[in-house]
Amino acid sequence: MDFSLTDDQRLLKDTIRHFMEAEVRPHLRQYEKEEHFPADEIRRLGELGCCGMTVPEEWGGGAADTLTFVVMLEEVARVCASTAVTLSVTNSVAAAPIARHGTPDQKQRFLPRMARGEWLGAFCLTEPQAGSDSAAIETRAVRTPAGYRLTGTKSWVTNGGVASVYLVFAKTDSSAGARGVTAFLVTPDLPGFRVARFEDKMGLKISKTAEIRLDECEVPAANRLGDEGQGLKIALEALDGGRVGIAAQAVGIAQGALEASVRYAKERRAFGKKLGEFQAIQWMLADMQTEIEAARMLTYHAAWLQDHGRGRGLSPLEARVGPQASRAKLYASEMVNRVAYKAVQVHGSMGYSREMDVERMYRDARVITIYEGTSEIQRTVIARDLLGRTGSPRAETNS
Questions:
Q1: Phi and psi of 144, rounded to 5°?
Q2: Angle of helix 231-267 relative to helix 357-366, nearest 10 degrees?
Q3: Distance CA 216, CA 50 (A)
Q4: Does residue 304 carry a pLDDT above 60?
Q5: I need a surface site. Which of 117, 125, 139, 277 has the fewest CB within 10 A?
Q6: Which CA distances in Å does 348 have to 71, 81, 255?
Q7: pLDDT at position 320 over 80
Q8: 33: CB partners within 8 A, 6+ apart
Q9: Where do runs of H (alpha helix) occur along 92-230?
Q10: Domains, the chain, ordered by start
C-alpha cells in the first residue's frame, strides 16, 4: 500500500487549501455569530468538484477514489468543520447510495445537480427514540396506488432545511424488524414534508441540523431507492463509507489545531522565552502531531480498502470495510478531542476566547465521537468483527 499523494491529489489539496484560506476563513467568525449557512461557498466548492466526488463521470461527477475524497475533506475541515460535514454528508450518505442503488431515472434526476453543487443531500435515519439502534425506527411507509405515504419524525438531520434531496428510511413491514426498512428519495416540495425546527448546537454552528417531520408525505413509487426491505443494508453501507469521511474531518480539524498551536508557540512569549522553548509545550505539540499521523494512516488505510473492494465490484460491507472504517472513526474522533484540548491549553486564556480559531475547533470536535455512530458503537463493531473471526456469533447489523 502506497499512500503517497499523486500529482492530481496534491493539486487538489493545494487548490482547496487556497480556497478555504482566501474565501472561507476571513468570514468564519461572522458566520458563526450569525449562524449563517455558507451557501455561496458551498456552491463554489461544487464548481471545484467537491460536491460530486462520489458521483460517476457519466452523471457529471468526478468519480474520485476514496483517498482523494479524504484529502479534500481534510483540507476543508482544517479551516471549517461545518463546511466539511456539509460536503461529507452530501457525498457519502446521499449521492453515493443513489449512485450505487438508484435506477437510471433516479440517477439522471438527482446526481448531475448534486455533482454541480446545485442540490445538497441529507440522510434521515435517526429519530427521537432511535439513534444507535437504527432498526428501532418508527417512521412508517404505507403503500398507496401512486406510491407510498410516509409518516414520522427524523432528528439531527445534517443539511436539513438546505438540502434538495433527503434519503429517508421508513418501515414498510413493521413485523419484519430490520428487514422491514425501505429507503426513499424525498424532496422538500412533496406534500406532507416539513422542516419542524433547527437544532441549537454547541459546535458546527454554520452547518444546518434540523428535525424533519413527515405527515402522510406522498412519495411516488419512482422515488423508492432499491427494493422494499433493503433500506437498512443501504443505510449501513452508506455509514461505512461515511465513517471514513468523518475520520477525515477529525484529522483535518486536528491538523488545523496543531498548525494554530505551532504558530502561537513561536510567537507568544512568557518568562522571557517563546512558548515553544518550554519542554512542556514541545511535548504537547509532539504528542499532537504523532496522534494526527496515526489517525491519518488509519483513515487512509480504510479509504484504500474501500477502493480495493470497489475495484472488485464489492460493496463496503462485502469488502469488510466496516470494521476498518470503525477503527479509523473511533481513533480519529477520540484523537481530535485530545488534540483540540491540548491546542486550547497551549493558547492558555486566549484559547478560551472566541477570537481564536482553536476555541471553535474545540467545540466542533466534540460531536465527532457521537454522530455517524458513537465511539461505543464503533467499539461494538470492532469487537464483533474480532469475535466473529474466532467463531463467535456475529450481529446482524453494526448499529
A1: -130, 170
A2: 150
A3: 35
A4: yes
A5: 277
A6: 31, 22, 19
A7: no
A8: none
A9: 96-101, 104-115
A10: 7-120 (1.10.540.10), 122-225 (2.40.110.10), 231-389 (1.20.140.10)
- The three grid cell numbers given for residue 177, joined into one nine-digit string: 424488524
State the sign of the Cα–Cα–Cα–Cα dihedral 143, 146, 147, 149: negative
C-alpha triplet 207, 209, 215: angle, nearest 5° = 150
Q: What is the mean pLDDT of residues 354-366?
A: 97
Which residues neighbour 56 within 8 Å (Cβ) at sequence distance 6 or greater? 63, 99, 111
Residues 159-183, mean pLDDT to the nearest whole number: 94
Tell which residue, 177, 55, 212, 175, has the closest CA to residue 118. 55
Quick check: is 372 catalytic? yes
* Cβ count near 296 (within 10 Å): 23
Cα dihedral across residues 306, 312, 317, 323: positive or negative = negative
Per-residue model confidence as pLDDT tens digits over 145-162: 999 999 999 999 999 999
List the catalytic residue out of 32, 35, 372, 376: 372
The H-or-E segment that residue 193 falls in is: strand 193-198
Residues in Cβ contact with 256 at an 8 Å cutoff, skipping those fewer than 6 apart: 77, 78, 79, 357, 361
Task: Please report, to the nearest 10 degrees, the dihedral formed by the alpha carbons of residues 51, 53, 57, 58 taken in order.
Answer: -50
CA distances 259 to 28, 229, 252, 292, 337, Å, are 17, 47, 11, 12, 15
Alpha carbons 142 and 39: distance in angstroms, whole number: 35
Percent of the chain with pLDDT over 70: 94
CB proximity list for 69: less than 8 A, separation 6 or greater: 53, 54, 91, 92, 245, 248, 303
- Tell me the C-alpha distance between 42 and 85, whole Å: 11
Closest CA to 204 of 325, 364, 311: 364
Alpha-carbon distance 226 to 101, whole Å? Answer: 6
DSSP alpha helices (H): ranges in the chain? 7-19, 28-34, 39-47, 66-79, 81-90, 96-101, 104-115, 231-267, 279-311, 321-347, 357-366, 375-389
Q: How confident is the model at residue 315 (pLDDT cuts 50, 70, 90)?
A: low
pLDDT tens profile 67-76: 999 999 999 9
